[in-house]
Each structure stands twice: as C-alpha cells, then as structure tokens.
Specification:
This protein has 435 residues and is α/β, with parallel strands linked by helices. It folds into two domains: 7-24 and 236-434, Enolpyruvate transferase domain (UDP-n-acetylglucosamine1-carboxyvinyl-transferase, Chain, Alpha-beta prism); 26-233, Alpha-beta prism (UDP-n-acetylglucosamine1-carboxyvinyl-transferase, Chain). 30% of the residues lie in helices and 28% in strands. It contains 14 helices and 24 strands. The chain has helices at residues 26-38, 52-63, 98-108, 129-137, 170-180, 198-205, 238-249, 269-276, 314-318, 323-329, 352-362, 393-403, 418-421, 425-432, and strands at residues 7-10, 15-21, 42-46, 67-72, 75-79, 92-93, 113-118, 141-145, 148-155, 162-164, 185-190, 209-212, 216-221, 231-233, 255-262, 280-289, 292-300, 308-311, 336-339, 368-370, 373-376, 386-388, 410-413, 433-434. Strands 16-17-15-2-24 form a five-stranded mixed beta sheet. A four-stranded mixed beta sheet has the order 4-5-3-14, covered by helices on one side. A four-stranded mixed beta sheet has the order 6-7-9-8.
Length: 435
Amino acid sequence: MHTAAEERLIRPARNVFGSLRLPGDKSISHRYAMLGAFAEGVSRFSNFSTGADCASTLACMQALGAKVNKTNENAIEITGVAGRVTPALAPLDCGNSGSTMRMMSGLLAPQEGRFTLTGDASLSRRPMERIRKPLEAMGARLTLTEGHAPVTIDGAPLRPIDYTTPVPSAQVKTCILLAGLQTPGVTTVREAVRTRDHSELALRAFGARVQRGVEFVAITGGEGRALHAIDAVVPGDISSAAFFLCAAALFPGSGLVIDSLGLNPTRAALLDVLTALGANVSVLNLEEQHGELVGTVQVTAPAEGLGSTQVSGGLAAQLIDELPVLAAIGPYTSGGIRIRDARELRVKESDRIALVAKNLRAMGAEVAEFEDGLDVPGGQSLHGAAIDSGSDHRIAMAFSVAALRAEGETLIQGAESAAISFPEFFQLLDMVAER
C-alpha cells in the first residue's frame, strides 16, 4: 500500500505537560501475534499495537491458517494453528516489517511446504543473509535474492545448533529460537551483547521450555512441545514513549506521566540515559505481567537544562531505536551527545546516521558524522526547516521532537511514515505540547 507523501507542520512549543497512555509495544505485539497464531487454542490480547508492521504479522499468520478477530479498537482474538501451518497460495507480504520477515522465516523453516516472503521496497533492501546462515546450519533450505527479500523457504525437519550471533540482533535470535522450538533437542543462541528478550519471555509464557544464562538462551524443542494460548495486555511501547520522554526533557517547566509502560530491562536503558543527561525520571507502581515489567514513568526536566552523555558499546545496541531522537535533541543539551558503535543504524529503514546529520544541518546545527555514529555538540539553537524523513518513521518522529524547541516552524516531509509504527503520534504530541 503506497500512501501519498504527507507533510506535517510542527510549531514550536512553550512546554510539554500532561499524561499519556501509549499503544501496545510493537516488539511484544509481533511475538504475541506469531506465537498466539502458532499455539493451540484462542489467545486474547488487549492494547495490541496499532502500527502497520504488526498488522503485517497478523495478515501473514492469517494467510497461514490462523483466525484473527478484532474484538474492538485495539483488542484481538487469535485462534492458533496448533503447530501446523497451511502453506499459503500467494507470497506472504511482510510490508515494511523486518521483524515479521526475519522471525517468521524461523517459524516456517521446519514446517512442511514452500513459503515465499516478500516486502516493500525498503524491506527488500534490508540484509537477510544474517538469518540464512544459522537456518542453513540447522539444515533449512532458504533462497534469497542477492542477500535480500524475496525469501523462499522449502520447509524440512531441522537439527538443533549451538550458534553465536556475529551481530547482536534480537530478530536473528528469535528466528533461531522459533526454528528450535520445532526441532528435537536443545538449540542454543549465544550473544556477546544481550539483546531484548521479549521472545524468551513470550515463548515461556506460551509454555515453551526456555533456559537463560548470562550470554546464552536455549530452547528445548520437538514433538509434544505444543504452545498454549494466553490472555495478555500488551504494555505501552517504550520506543514510542522515547519521543515524548525526550520532548519533556527539553523544557524546564515540563511534567509528563506515561501509564502502563513496558519497562523490560533490556529496553529501558533510555531512562538511564535521560537520567545521565540530568532529567528527573521516576518509576511508579512497577508490576510483572507474563514476565514483562510494566509501570508508570514520570519525567520532569531539570531547571538548568540537560548536560551531556555518550552512548557506545553494549548500550548503543540496546538503544538502537532511540538513538535518532537522542541525537535530535543533542543540540539543546549543554555538553552535547556522542554516539558510537551504532553502525547498525545505517541498515535500518534508512541510513539513519546520514539522515540525522543531514536534517540537523538543515536546522542550522553543527554535527560530525562517523561510520558508526555522530557527535552532536551542545549549546546550539536550531531554526525550523524542511525535514527529509527518508520515509523512515523514526526520523519523522525524532525531528518532530527537535522542532518543538526550534525557532519558527518545521515541515516534516514523508510524515505518513510515522503511521507505520505509531499512527497516533502527531495527535498525542499535540496533546502534550503547550503552545
């Protein structure tokens, strides 16, 4: 589906204030959708992600035999296929979603039949070689198109492996675990940097046998290891919250409360970075739901403004989705923001390092670009400009935040890309931006 390019005008704000509840976490929604559709019985999920990416996962699972019933605005019921999919007659369209394509490849590799996964132009440029290697080591047959989608899978019984991921990637880890779930024996994934663990927690919630150590995850698979349906509320998406938390951190009189937010420790590093920058962050009523931590987060900005920080090493991998918005607010800090070890940003929906640098310069900022990151000096003032989002939702949203403290109006080009992950974004931003 190609929507006409949409532009959004963002006016400067005086303050950011109020309380929000955010749409369901995209990462968790993808996994619940896939596992619910693969399990036995009927799963029910409320606050399911409203983004187009999770809709792609649901559509693919429906094409494979699961039944999906929308019970209201953001609640769904999924009747699973009890471990046996029906090969689809047409290619499975993953849309813009790398998560769908990479994770589903692992789910389908041990199933009987031939499956073809396709995606839009942006997804068709993203690297898929990283899933082919481990799956082929398990005995799977995958055909890629010059290392990219379309991906064709000829399903066959697999053998367990012990695999060390060369690049930390939760999607690759999940792909291997989903294949291992259906493979007799123990499949182990090792990673040098711990990536988000939603898959392990979700697999466990659905009844899979998952073991975790400091640097590994192992799943015991094979016959009789059926997954069972669950009922769950999907926590608010912290990667979506990042934009509002960073916006609130820019205004000394701000006060923002976000309810029912997912605070998984492998995802909540942003709160530590905002604290390091000097923002006042507090977490209230923390509880656990299906292994996931959920709580209320309150942020106020320091009267003296934000300081400076560096994001590198393992932290860069954990914060990969939040780095564009951190870089975008860098000029407003006193000491700047420095990002390294984030080369992965160049192969996301766009080359995010290049686009962040280009758009900051368009707004009048000085910025140094490196192969694996950026130096954004502090103490700068920005002016409104025309922003090239590169059809990348996180770039569109990051610069909408930067625009709140700029002089004059900012035009976000390609604003419709935000709807891919977060259709309510602009409406919620207007709600909390006091003008």
